[in-house]
Specification:
447 residues, alpha/beta, D-Maltodextrin-Binding Protein, domain 2, 7-stranded mixed sheet, 4-stranded mixed sheet, 15 strands
Length: 447
């Protein structure tokens, strides 16, 4: 993550700002609260601020949802305001790469947005810092039926059993492949029984120097984010029972060596970092120069709009030692320092419920975590690409969440600095992982 040192400094400022706030005068119970514990399990409860001229409550919502197609999330906001005409939403769409630093700056300055979009790991970090309002009492006081959600998407946003945000989307990683390239090579399409060797065999056949200049122009495969590969080989970044780094285990070395060999081995079938700097994997796939790539449902809208020269489909991720992939979710959380908590909760309940998530899903921004709405995702793609959209649902039987830790950002930065050297063939994998583990163990030892 960029500006990681600034991120750490802002974390300290955030914690200090919250400590000072905790020493201030007690907040008033929100209007309409009859003594329930809503909002009392951490973070102060404040009176909703009313816009005197209009009689409306104004809430600030900041979100990275559908940043590239902002009309999707603004449609959610418009539908909410129509249902709750007494609440005005001051909505700001912010790029994912910038939003978390922005949150920390605002929270440290005691001016947080009332509602904040979160991804999985940042939700954990912000909750651990005490920056998010615990939601269990709000869920209870409004009788929200949480059984409507996929359990895994709810559980992702719990810290020590407490719900700190509500899922608004979920997605998982599957194998996208170019059917035309498979047909031209006379290869069978990928399937759930594929092993790492099946993948390699097909990828080598699909890797070609198409113009005879001695340089590969068409690659067979690009590996997913390294934690997914670790999961496929039964490897972990750290062991929670010993609180020690295990990235440099035999399984970890084998998993990451597979990525290096695909790029720099005697039988190359994946693009190198230099290749990807010239053309990213999405653009490479859409141009018909990458036969297989792992990505998720967030790609469907773009691919269906821009891919016009071939047909693509999806399949289960090829196994390493086992079938494995990741499931992700994005959520909406309430700032612990919000002064408009009742209105903020109404927005969260709507935007992550059946109405809000259907708008988002219909806009092709990931899949609704509400089971009844998610059923329509596959149906909505019937007759188009990908043909086997049901795979997005099928892989949920074995998909797992990405690693998470209160210090995940620091840990990820420390790993990346070493792993990037290995994955660009500048350092042996074992040496890089040994060095990464020294840094990870130091981070794990932090309180």
């Amino acid at each position: 993550m960029k500006n990681s040192k600034l991120f750490v400094v802002l974390s300290v400022l955030l914690a200090l700002g919250m400590l000072l706030a905790a020493c201030g005068p007690a907040a008033t119970t929100p209007a309409g609260d009859t003594g329930s514990s809503a909002g009392s399990a951490g973070g102060s409860v404040a009176v909703d601020t009313q816009a005197a001229s209009s009689g409306k409550t104004t809430i600030k919502v900041m979100s990275f949802f559908a940043y590239d197609t902002p009309e999707v999330e603004t449609a959610v906001v418009a539908a909410f305001e129509k249902k709750y005409p007494d609440i005005k939403v001051d909505f700001e769409s912010v790029a994912f790469s910038d939003i978390f630093l922005k949150y920390k700056t605002l929270i440290a300055g005691n001016t947080p947005p009332d509602v904040m979009s979160m991804n999985f790991d940042q939700a954990y970090s912000f909750a651990s810092l005490g920056a998010l309002e615990p939601l269990d009492s709000w869920i209870k006081s409004t009788n929200l039926d949480t059984s409507i959600y996929f359990p895994a998407t709810l559980d992702m946003f719990k810290v020590d059993g407490v719900q700190y945000s509500m899922p608004g989307t979920f997605s998982d990683v599957v194998l996208f492949y170019n059917k035309d390239l498979f047909d031209a090579a006379g290869l069978q399409y990928p399937n759930k029984n594929w092993t790492a060797q099946d993948l390699k065999t097909a990828a080598l056949t699909l890797t070609k120097d198409t113009n005879g200049d001695g340089k590969i122009d068409q690659f067979g495969y690009e590996y997913p984010w390294y934690p997914i590969v670790l999961e496929q080989y039964n490897a972990k970044i750290w062991d929670p029972t010993t609180n020690k780094c295990t990235l440099n285990s035999d399984a970890g070395i084998k998993a990451l060596q597979a990525i290096v060999d695909s790029r720099y081995g005697s039988e190359q079938y994946a693009p190198t970092p230099d290749d990807l700097n010239q053309q990213g994997d999405w653009d490479m796939f859409m141009a018909g120069k990458l036969a297989m790539m792992p990505t998720g449902p967030w790609a469907v809208g773009t691919f269906n709009q821009k891919i016009t020269t071939f047909t693509y489909d999806i399949a289960d991720m090829p196994a390493g030692e086992k079938l494995a992939t990741h499931v992700y979710a994005n959520s909406y959380a309430m700032a612990a320092g919000s002064k408009n908590k009742e209105a903020a909760w109404k927005f969260i309940e709507f935007a992550t419920g059946p109405e809000g998530t259907k708008i988002r899903q219909d806009g092709k921004y990931e899949i609704s975590p509400v089971k009844s709405v998610a059923d329509g995702f596959v149906a909505g793609l019937a007759g188009g690409n990908p043909e086997h959209a049901s795979v997005f649902m099928d892989v949920m039987s074995y998909a797992v969440a990405q690693p998470v830790h209160a210090h995940w950002t620091e840990m990820s930065d420390a790993i990346d600095s070493e792993l990037n050297l290995a994955l660009s063939n500048q350092k042996p994998v074992k040496d890089a992982l040994d060095a990464a583990c020294v840094a990870v163990d130091s981070i794990l030892a932090q309180p």
